[in-house]
Amino acid sequence: MERWIMHVDMDAFFASVEQLDHPEYRGQPVIVGGLGNRGVVSTASYEARHFGVHSALSMMEARRRCPQGIFVAGRYDRYHEISRQIFAVFAEFSPKVEPLSVDEAFLDITGMERLFSDRRSYAEQLRQRIFEKTGLVASVGIAPNKFLAKLASDLEKPAGLVLIERGQEEAVLFNLPIRRLWGVGGKTNEKLGQLGFKTIGDIAAADRRQLEKFFGGRLACHLIELAHGRDDREVETERVMQSIGNEVTFAQDLTQTAQAECELLALAEKVGWRLRQAGVKTRTVTLKIRTASFRTITRSRTLPEPTNFDKELYQMALELYRQAAIGEGIRLLGITGSNLLLHEQESLFGIDDKQKKLYQAVDSLKGRFGNTIITKAQLVGRSKKE
Ligand code: TTP
Ligand code: MG
């Protein structure tokens, strides 16, 4: 049966929720994120994007680029509430839904032709249903595979609806810049740029051996496959446990950034170990912080590829920590991985065999000598906690 995938992604999600709940914000540049001096932009409304404001930009720079903007701290409980409504709609439209983050998912619509007259109007119906239920606008991509569906939903954002027909793949892809290849990170991109590749078409036409020389067989092969619009990954719906996490309350509030970062590394190691023991990977990392004044803050981020590596969990937690820009002492820190995948679903790119072997070796020692036997040098001698 011909596979068909739909990818749905809300437009400027957090900022749109703010505009929904505050009608006076509509049509205005709204910027959501950490408002402190070291805060970072979570997202910006499309009005604010005209001023060059985007996710991950420092809040200071955002204020410089868009002084007239409306700056708001996120209301994460509210975003999650809406997220649940959106996912309830997804479930009405397909039995196979793979969540990618709070505001996006893949829906497998293979073999569902009897339910709709044509794919485009099915997507139209879904967008309409989301709008009725939440008052928010989504962009949708429909394509023969996940990579193309995700790409398609982004092509005409906001309020986009793009269908890539079988046979159109190369026509759509070849003139696009290489950063559109899903999962190709900054480093690979940069390297490809240095080698003179600009468009996806350049990669499709590349000499395979040249790519192999620079990126290794596995990555080279994936790059070429994607460049031709080929991707046979399944929509993954299998979920095991809800989540795996650890948290720690400190005897004395932490006041130094370095201490907090050290504790995050220790937590990431624990959670990573537990994920690996359970044979699962996590796709969504949540950081919980309770401050000296008993404020509780949670921040989540979804990874492009699921992981159970300490280092990746740590980096994500650290980023979220910095983004939260807490201006006071810290009582509690916690890291949770949710959105767990049971299968050792290999990362598309750079599943680093060396890293995997390293973790296996470390885990077998931890198994024999207890969990504390091996720990990163950074953690030795860190402050005592409760
Ligand atoms: P995205 O779907 O990447 O972004 P978006 O919905 O704001 O905008 P669009 O899809 O129209 O380009 O992310 C969804 C939400 O996740 C976003 O509203 C805020 C949050 N987020 C962060 O907190 N930090 C980030 O770096 C990114 C990319 C997103
Ligand atoms: Mg979005």
Share of residues in strands:
15-25%
Q: Gyration radius, to the nearest Å?
A: 22 Å
Helices and strands, in order, run as EHEEHHEHEEHEHEHHHHEHEEHEH
- Write down the overall mean pLDDT: 88
Number of distinct beta strands:
12
Q: What is the global morphology? A: globular
What would you call the structural class?
alpha+beta
Major pleated sheet: 5 strands, mixed
Tally of contiguous helical segments: 13
Calculate the terminal CA-CA distance, rounded to whole Å.
Answer: 57 Å
- Runs with pLDDT <50, length 5+? 343-350
Provide the spatial order of strands within the biggest beta sheet: 5-6-1-7-8
Instruction: Identify the bound ligands.
Output: thymidine-5'-triphosphate, magnesium ion
Helix content: 40-55%
Oligomer: single chain
Structural description of this entry:
There is one protein chain. The protein is an alpha+beta fold and 386 residues long. It has helices at residues 13-21, 46-49, 59-65, 76-93, 119-134, 146-155, 169-173, 186-194, 200-204, 208-227, 257-278, 310-324, 353-369; strands spanning 5-10, 30-33, 41-44, 70-72, 96-101, 104-108, 138-143, 161-163, 243-254, 281-291, 296-307, 330-341. The strands form three sheets. Strands 5-6-1-7-8 form a five-stranded mixed sheet. A four-stranded antiparallel sheet has the order 9-12-10-11, covered by helices on one side. The chain has a three-stranded mixed sheet with strand order 3-2-4, sandwiched between helices. It is globular, with a radius of gyration of 22 Å. It starts with a strand and ends in a 17-residue tail after the last helix. The structure holds thymidine-5'-triphosphate and magnesium ion. The site of thymidine-5'-triphosphate has 16 residues, from strand 1, helix 1 and strand 3.
